[in-house]
Design brief:
alpha/beta; Rossmann fold
Length: 195
């Protein structure tokens, strides 16, 4: 089984975006960094914050692009190429409009689904990498999407998203071991308590 080597969180840099729904991918990677004491520091050649550490016995690199969402490829692609990674060694965490807050899905391959971060990555490396899709819910009409993703979740939504991220973190050992199908079953089957 191929093991994950790089975990990327997609989002926008800067304090004004830190708590917004679009940064749900950042939250996942930041939690890994915090839990495993992996310092994240600016790396100019990858246009992002990067770190490397031991996570459940595995040598793992983390990346938070600082290019803004729609230019994520400028950060992710050079790092994938520099370390000569296969796509099955790559997990990208990102917010997902098409699933409700408190749901989380692990997917391998597929299109970009209109997600601007993925849209900027897929043409350069292909689409057969793993994605952790963190549900943020849809505002109901496409005209409201931009405001929705760039605003903070409600308190209830934030609690739900945090619980979903906990589920993903609980399944990190499986993901890192390359046991993707077992991790997928657990993550995709996640249900909020009392939901």
């Amino acid at each position: 089984m191929t093991q994950l080597k790089l975990i990327v969180g997609l989002g926008n840099p800067g304090q004004q975006y830190a708590q917004t729904r679009h940064n749900a991918g950042f939250w996942f990677v930041e939690q890994i960094a915090k839990q495993f004491n992996i310092p994240l520091s600016a790396e100019k050649k990858f246009f992002g914050l990067t770190g490397r550490g031991r996570v459940y016995g595995h040598d793992v690199r983390l990346l938070l692009p600082e290019t803004f969402m729609n230019k994520s490829g400028q950060s992710v692609v050079p790092m994938v190429n520099f370390f000569n990674l296969d796509n099955n060694q790559l997990l990208i965490a990102h917010d997902e409009l098409d699933i409700p807050a408190g749901s989380i899905k692990l997917k391998t391959g597929g299109g970009h689904g209109g997600h601007n971060g993925l849209r900027d990555i897929v043409p350069h490396i292909g689409n057969d990498f793993h994605r952790l899709r963190v549900g943020i819910g849809h505002p109901g009409h496409k005209s409201k999407v931009s405001g929705h993703v760039l605003s903070k979740p409600t308190n209830d939504e934030q609690i739900s998203i945090d619980k979903a991220l906990e589920c993903a973190l609980d399944n990190l050992p499986l993901l890192l071991d390359g046991n993707i199908e077992k991790a997928r079953a657990n993550i995709n089957g996640f249900k909020l308590p009392n939901a």
